[in-house]
Every structure is written in C-alpha cells, then in structure tokens.
C-alpha cells in the first residue's frame, strides 16, 4: 500500500504541472491515476478528480491573476453557465453504469489528444477584446460544463480554445481565464456526483495537495518551455492513455 501511495502522489504532480502549464489536462490524468493505480471505482474517481482539479485550478488562478492573465467577467459568465451544465452532468453521470462512463472518458481523452496535436488557432495578441458574445458564452459554457460534469474531463482543453475564439482572446488570457471556469464547474459537477457517490477524502486530499505543488511549479515554468512542443508531447501521451483505457474497458466487457 505504501508503494502504491507513493506512486499515486508522485503521478499527482503531473496533474498540477499540466494545469499550471497548459490550463487543462488535469482530469485527463487524475481519473486514470485514481482508477488504475489507486484502485478507485470509476464514479468515485470521476467525483474525486472534480475536487482535485477544482481546488488546484482555484489555487493556480492566483498566479495568473497577479500577472493580469485573467478576464474575470468572461470567466465568471462562462463559469456560471458551466456550473449549471456540470451539475446536470454530475447528476446524470452518477446514475450511468461505470463501464459506459469509462468508455466515454476514453473517447474524450482521444478527442482531446487530437485537438492538442492539431494545435490552437493563433490569435493576434494586440487584438482588442470587447463586445462579449453573451449568448455564445452561455451556450458554450453550458455544453462544456455538461461534458465535464458527466465524465470528469474535457475541461481546460475545451474551454481554452473556446475562450480564444470568443472575441479573439489572446492565448495567455485564455489559459488564465480557463482556470476560473474549470474551478467553478468542477465544484458544480462534484456536487452532482455527491448526491449518490461517496469518495475517499484522505486519498483525495493527498492527491490534491500534490497537484497544487505541481501547479505552482508549472506556473513558474510558463514561458520557459515551448508551449507548442509541450502540448504535442502531452497530446501523444493522452492519446496513448485514451487507447489504453478504451482497450481495458472493452476487454472487461
């Protein structure tokens, strides 16, 4: 058990590093770590991942906000819509068979990895950011929240591109603002799951602590590591992990 705990906590650093550097990817790592290393059930792992990523994102926001990389108005509006969708997703996910959830999670990992490998749209950093498309923000926020609440994944790597496209938000602002959105909808999704699912708080809190440390390290590394190269390397890793999860669940049918 001690060896397993050390491995889980060591891998948890990667959760925070991903959030700190890329503004997403936390749940993509958390759920497989909790299921295949810590031995959690699928629903318990998804619920726990929402707590881990929610707290870690909230802490990560502080550093980005200090450096002026958070658009609070957009983040709060997007996050509020995301909370409604995430709570509904959490309620629904807690009542869906675990195998179905894990297969959906694996497909989300594969879709996320493809999006990462394709890259992001370049946005002119000098482009003025104004006239928020409110209805588009609400619609996108609710949809992303629903997906996140349902399978506990797809947060940052759906939110960041959406924010970058809404009115031409520069990527640095999109990453910082996405953490506000991720925190808000993660807690809403968790609330939905906790209506029927109980989690191991001791392990969850330990994983959260390590993820926070990783996020602080990641925040310090922003700008020092080429984002495009890092994203592609992580994309291939997520693709491999998604394939692994999919095969495990299909073989277990």
From TrEMBL:
<feature type="transmembrane region" description="Helical">
    <location>
        <begin position="99"/>
        <end position="117"/>
    </location>
</feature>
<keyword id="KW-0812">Transmembrane</keyword>
<protein>
    <recommendedName>
        <fullName>Probable membrane transporter protein</fullName>
    </recommendedName>
</protein>
<feature type="transmembrane region" description="Helical">
    <location>
        <begin position="75"/>
        <end position="93"/>
    </location>
</feature>
<dbReference type="Pfam" id="PF01925">
    <property type="entry name" value="TauE"/>
</dbReference>
<feature type="transmembrane region" description="Helical">
    <location>
        <begin position="201"/>
        <end position="221"/>
    </location>
</feature>
<feature type="transmembrane region" description="Helical">
    <location>
        <begin position="171"/>
        <end position="194"/>
    </location>
</feature>
<dbReference type="InterPro" id="IPR002781">
    <property type="entry name" value="TM_pro_TauE-like"/>
</dbReference>
<dbReference type="InterPro" id="IPR051598">
    <property type="entry name" value="TSUP/Inactive_protease-like"/>
</dbReference>
<feature type="transmembrane region" description="Helical">
    <location>
        <begin position="137"/>
        <end position="165"/>
    </location>
</feature>
<keyword id="KW-0472">Membrane</keyword>
<keyword id="KW-1133">Transmembrane helix</keyword>
<keyword id="KW-1003">Cell membrane</keyword>
<feature type="transmembrane region" description="Helical">
    <location>
        <begin position="233"/>
        <end position="251"/>
    </location>
</feature>
<comment type="similarity">
    <text>Belongs to the 4-toluene sulfonate uptake permease (TSUP) (TC 2.A.102) family.</text>
</comment>
<feature type="transmembrane region" description="Helical">
    <location>
        <begin position="46"/>
        <end position="63"/>
    </location>
</feature>
């Amino acid at each position: 058990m001690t060896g397993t705990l050390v491995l889980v906590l060591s891998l948890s650093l990667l959760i925070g590093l991903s959030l700190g550097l890329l503004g997403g990817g936390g749940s993509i790592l958390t759920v497989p770590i909790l299921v295949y290393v810590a031995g959690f059930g699928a629903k318990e792992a998804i619920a726990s991942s929402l707590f881990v990523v929610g707290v870690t994102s909230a802490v990560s926001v502080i550093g980005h906000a200090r450096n002026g990389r958070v658009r609070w108005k957009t983040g709060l509006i997007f996050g509020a819509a995301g909370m409604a969708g995430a709570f509904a997703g959490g309620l629904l996910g807690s009542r869906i068979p675990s195998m179905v959830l894990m297969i959906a999670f694996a497909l989300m990992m594969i879709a996320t990895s493809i999006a990462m490998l394709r890259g992001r749209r370049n946005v002119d950093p000098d482009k003025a950011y104004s006239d928020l498309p409110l209805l588009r923000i609400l619609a996108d926020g609710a949809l992303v929240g629903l997906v996140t609440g349902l399978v506990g994944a797809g947060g940052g790597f759906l939110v960041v591109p959406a924010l970058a496209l809404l009115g031409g938000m520069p990527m640095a602002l999109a990453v910082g603002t996405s953490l506000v959105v991720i925190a808000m909808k993660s807690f809403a999704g968790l609330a939905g799951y906790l209506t029927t699912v109980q989690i191991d708080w001791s392990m969850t809190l330990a994983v959260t602590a390590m993820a926070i440390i990783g996020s602080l390290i990641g925040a310090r590394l922003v700008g020092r590591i080429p984002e495009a190269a890092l994203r592609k390397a992580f994309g291939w890793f997520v693709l491999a992990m998604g394939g692994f999860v999919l095969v495990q669940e299909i073989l277990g049918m």
